[in-house]
Amino acid sequence: MGNKFTLMEVKDRKTRKEFLMLPVRLYRKDRNYIRPLDRDVERVFDPRQNKLFRQGVCTRWILRDEKGRTIGRVAAFIDRKTAAKNDQPTGGMGFFECIHDQEAATVLFEQCREWLMSQGMEAMDGPINFGERYEWWGLLVDGFSEPNYCAPYNFGYYRDLFENYGFQLYFKQFTFHRMVKTDLKEVVKNKSDKVLQNPDYSFRALEKSKMQLAIEDFRQVYNKSWGKHSGVAQMSPAQAKSLFSKLKPVLDPDLLWFAYYKNEPVAFFFMLPELNQIFKFMKGKLHLFNKLRFLYYKKAKVCRKLLGVLFGVVPEHQGKGVEAALVVAFTRMAFKPAFPYDEIEMNWIGDFNLRMIHVVEQIGGKISKTHHTYRYLFDRSVPFKRAPVIG
After folding, report:
1. Helix (H, G, I), strand (E, B) or coil at 72
2. Which residue blocks in the chain are alpha helix, DSSP H?
3. Are 147 and 336 in contact, with CB atoms under 8 Å apart?
4. Residue 11 CA to chain centroid, in angstroms?
5. For 291-305, how does the pLDDT look when each residue is reduced to its tens digit (9 = 90+)?
6. What is the gyration radius of the CA atoms in the chain, in angstroms?
7. Is residue 126 helix, strand or coil?
8. At how many degrees (to 10) do helices 158-165 and 102-118 cross?
9. What is the model's pTM?
10. Parallel, antiparallel or unpaired: strands 366-377 and 168-179
11. Which of 51, 55, 113 is closest to 88 using CA atoms?
12. Closest Cα partner for 347 from 302, 307, 299?
């Protein structure tokens, strides 16, 4: 690197602050940028809060120029439970930010590659999260509007930085949008009728009095529908409980719907109020005053948008109309005048998940954002493979 760039591992309060503040400076003139909450970023790197440290490792760096200015940042990590699920042991990199300079970006990418190789990895995916796929996953390449809560947002030139280095497209991620009170297509209604009329199936929203049962129902469906996918780990009871505990302040019971077959959970549709419509006023902080502001904005119902976080159907009940019936059950409630939300964006669906793309398109969803997840094979002679198609 000579004297042009200096890499510093994030280890103390000063470097942690620089890691958080770099994007604030980079995006200061971007009207669509919404600063994430500092605590949401920092919990990814806190072993006390991120349970993946139990079987994984993580580190991060900032990059400075010859004048001592921070011009880039990146993190690298390994989740050992999912690393071995690939043809090559695969680590991850993410939380990438950089000025428009390919040489600077390459320094960051090379640091991740070298560190991951030293840990026995043979490939890296990025930009991804050291955690669940529904947060901080992918590079935005189309649809540069306000980001959803914990969703990646970046400059358009980042795509060139990644692809010029040699990252190859592993899969595309589509975010779909629809207005809530839009009539469903007849084909969806017809498909759902058989299921809704079958007495073995039942559909209901979350009941707060049965929260512990609902958490376990959610975990069972999640593991059966997602846990066997490449790069996705099974969710433990502790992880499920932690997830719901974290979401408790914003969880709306009307937005988590379950489908049951003979009283066994077979599907869920998990939504949240799109919190960035409130958090954009917080400037990254959630101190006491901002917590009071949050409660005020929440009560004032300034949040008119929903985020569809997860949609899961166990394999045995896929393709039977359960997905459509679950959506119909939800919309019957959502069409009531008192329902406070106008629109919904569904958290990303991979281009490998043809069945779910078909379901969302059938219910009127249209692509509003596209992200890319890339993969970089360290041995450049190894043939590259896209993510396998499912459904």
Report:
1. strand
2. 13-26, 38-42, 80-83, 102-118, 158-165, 186-196, 211-225, 237-247, 276-279, 288-299, 322-334, 354-362
3. no
4. 26
5. 888 888 888 888 899
6. 21
7. strand
8. 50
9. 0.87
10. antiparallel
11. 113
12. 307
